[in-house]
Design brief:
By secondary structure, the protein is mostly beta strands.
């Protein structure tokens, strides 16, 4: 089972188009369902890739990777989880960001005690395109990083 999950959560470009169906319609995580699947930034020297998989109605696992050619420069496991009445975006370092805004096309997670970022925003641009934005203050200066990601395959 662990091998199966690690393969699905790798930064591969093999999509699993069935995963959205495993999240029930009454799950609070349903508002994040448009994140499910495999995403990658356009060709560049360094690319960003994210994959999201439903584990249960209270947990979605993800992985975010920075790639150069065929090498993974860094990767981070992520969890979207229900804790109490909140939806949290939790990193492998156990930094949690609370969902503070949810619309049909936008998810905003915030943690103002984190060093950087303090805000993680996902925007559903279209069925095949999302924008990820990391914002906050780093070394006393405002900082913003944006990534455009496209579905790897339909």
């Amino acid at each position: 089972m662990l091998f199966f999950l690690s393969v699905l959560l790798s930064c591969s470009t093999t999509p699993n188009t069935e995963i959205a169906r495993t999240l029930s319609t009454n799950s609070p995580l349903q508002k994040t369902a448009w994140l499910l699947g495999h995403w990658r930034s356009p060709k560049a020297e360094v690319q960003v890739a994210e994959s999201w998989l439903v584990v249960s109605d209270t947990l979605i696992k993800g992985v975010s990777c920075f790639l150069k050619d065929t090498d993974t420069l860094s990767s981070q496991n992520i969890r979207l989880e229900i804790r109490g009445s909140h939806i949290l975006y939790t990193t492998a370092q156990l930094k949690s960001f609370m969902l503070t805004l949810s619309t049909e096309n936008t998810l905003v997670f915030e943690n103002f005690t984190d060093d950087f970022p303090q805000k993680i925003c996902y925007k559903n641009i279209s069925q095949d395109s999302i924008q990820t934005e990391l914002t906050g203050v780093l070394n006393g200066q405002p900082k913003q990083i944006q990534f455009m990601l496209g579905k790897t395959q339909k």
